[in-house]
UniProtKB/TrEMBL annotation:
Pfam families: SBP_bac_8. Keywords: Signal. PANTHER family: ARABINOSE-BINDING PROTEIN-RELATED (PTHR43649), SUGAR BINDING SECRETED PROTEIN (PTHR43649:SF32). It comes from the Bacteria. Residues 1-27 form the signal peptide. It comes from Streptomyces lonegramiae. The keyword Signal applies. This is Extracellular solute-binding protein. The keyword Nucleotidyltransferase does not apply. PROSITE patterns: PROKAR_LIPOPROTEIN (PS51257).
Amino acid sequence: MFRSSGTYRHRAVTLAAVAAISAGLLAGCANDSDDETGSSGGGKGGNKGGTTITVGTFGVFGYKQAGLYDEYMKLHPDINIEETSIERNENYYPQLLTHLGAGSGLADIQAIEIANITEIKTTQADKFVDLSKAPGVKKDNWLSWKWAQGTTEDGKTIGLGTDIGPMAICYRKDLFQQAGLPTDRTEVAKLWAGDWNKYIETGKKYMKKAPGDTTFVDSAGGVYNAVISSNAKRYYDESGKVIYKDSPAVKEAWELATTASQDKLTAKLQQFQKSWDQAFSNGKFATVSCPPWMLGHIKEKAGDKAKDQWDVAAAPRPGNWGGSFIGVPKASKHQEEAIKLAAWLTAPEQQAKVFEKQASWPSSQAAYSLPQVGDAKHPYFGNAPIGKIFAEAAKGIPTQVLGPKDQIIGSNIADIGLLQVDQQGKSPKDAWKAATKTIDNALDQ
């Protein structure tokens, strides 16, 4: 399920290819249709007559691709399922808000991106069904922090978690070896265990013997996103106040990212741009922060020549980059049946099937004991035990305080501030001023 997430996956939506894990390929991002508002009826016309449940999504959620709609309709011959997907969340979400405001035009099930879940909880919760006690929904199936993200302060769960993006570090074994660093994934993880500062220090060691014109990491923005994503309190406090200017997490992430740039550890790239893709192909950098959905992107862009050169190691601290929810609007025409379908689609067994087909990492911790998740290995990455690596990361992710404008704040820090440091050589002080000015204007502060 590869869509806009956190700071920032919206650029990735059209870039990485989808492929089955069973064929040795972890999926990246893909278009659900050629049209911006394409309809992709996973079960359209599957059962004659009966009740038609509509599902509104953005990007690719993988339910159709994993055959779940067809499976559900076989189990329920009186049900038809029709999915409509808008490619980009930045187009999908404003339409969702418009329909919620009007109380019409809504699908029976609507997807909600992680960057928008707080705004939906605080301003639109009364428009959604409370799923906390719905038949088939077991709170303990989900990671506690994921359940909390979709639940209001008064205990109403308006969104059931679909995927998440636990982070690891993908690294080039061949480049590490040439730079005199260990290559075994366990030993590599020890280099920076518990501390992002150690990751930067490892980068400095790498650059002393860096082969050719390679660098340690792809971009300052990538470093920032990895560090900030491993913190609980970032841009907002628990009361909903914007605190990014004084946030210790933002300060840490900014300082490490600018240090990486100024010490020439970065390839001065911008993630999800053509030059970034080409750098994978040309082997220009040795590490990149990677959630499960990133693995397919690396495989596609680095190509067959880099097979067994890339590997996966645990990140310094667990962090999350990505994830979504599905909810049932109260305006649903078939509310009871929609609730049953939403519960079934997000059950551990179905999340495992979506992972197997789409590499969408389950938010259901109960799915981690299922073989297709827990025992998953990736041939392209030296048979890395990704099931174990990402499950361990997922369990350690802090419960993040999310705000309604997280995406605006994070993307401007990366794309305005850090890009000026990395590509234009501006001082961190001047770049920070430029970023905060843009953010404050966007937040009307």
